[in-house]
Amino acid sequence: xxxxVRARREDASVSWKRGRARVLSVVxxxxxxxxxDHTRGDEDEEKEEEKKxxxxxxxxxxxxxxxxxxxxxxxxxPTVRDADERSERSIARECARAYFFVAVWMSISMAxxxxxxxxxxxxxxxxxxxxxxxxxxxxxxxxxxxxxxxKVTNRLKMSRREYARKVMPIGFFYAASLWLSNSAYLHxxxxxxxxxxxxxxxxxxxxxxxFRMEKLTARTSLNMVVIAIGVAIxxxxxxxxxxxxxxxxLSALLFEAVRLMLVQILITRQGMxxxxxxxxxxxxxxxxFFLAFPLIYVEYPAMMNDSTLVFDWGMLTxxxxxxxxxxxxxxxxxGKTSALTMNIAGVIxxxxxxxxxxxxxxxxxxxxxxxxxxxxxLSVFMYSTFSRRARLDPARRTHRDRSFPRVHSRLTAxxxxxxxRAQT
Length: 424
Fold this sequence. Notes:
single chain, 424 residues, 15 helices, 0% strand
């Protein structure tokens, strides 16, 4: 026998021993001979082992069943099936938690709107500025305790000059929006006010074009015209139409659109993002500051001359607590769900408020109200869909720079002139 043949046989014997050791590690209960029992030649030993193991199952068959380890003992590590079941349970818990926060936010938001309507229109406390001022003072006190004492969220590094330049304008438009929107409850029904809120995307778009945050396009402009037509049809069908109330509500929506655009500029251009609690912590004092002026010069003299006015502090405290709980619910909702979920929940909430107002306050809703609101609602849905597609795929944006070139160039010239005046 040559040296090469002997070397190959020795290599084969070593590989066979390693394979037998692996089988032993899988099925320890089988009895095999030890390495010291190999006294015969390599060829006889291989033949004998092949006869012995001719009916032996493969390693995959000998593997322990799920849930059991060696010799029938329970496995210490989790199996794949257990991991899948735990993952499904975790997903189910997260979904249930998200739906819970959505339901809480919708319930509190509806309760605050109906509560404000009842206080201002039916309880005898017809002073919207005083009510809004009370909300801001109450929320400022509570959020200051949460931020400074309990450290619920971090404070931003902001100087007084930055606060006056960035936050105070937001507080001004927020105060004007709350004042006028609460004043509209004295003259309009809750259902009609919710229908007019369908104009918000159009107003935000117009303000965004003015601040050069949005592009002026034919498709979006046509969409906004359809929304306006739908709201106009709803207004034409309103039985309790009041010119003062409609003017206040539309002005409140315009101020709110400007506030939202200023917040967007603060986040995108200046990189100062705030969560709802931080926004409440910084904006509420500024809002209360600007509300003090109409309270002192408009409502305070009327309140002093109102002999029938009675302050029900229990009712006012409960109302302010609901308003603060709404901000807290928004804070929790944003952390647990997405913006799309919140928008869908807002649409459902508006429809529920229309029916709730009709039931609790007896506000009549005509067929034209529903037709106009459905037209506006579908247009808002199309606008949201197109905007989402444009954000996901910028290549789908058509006529971005070609739509209304003359109007856009004139607006650009106005913006440049305004910037030059501001710099000088």
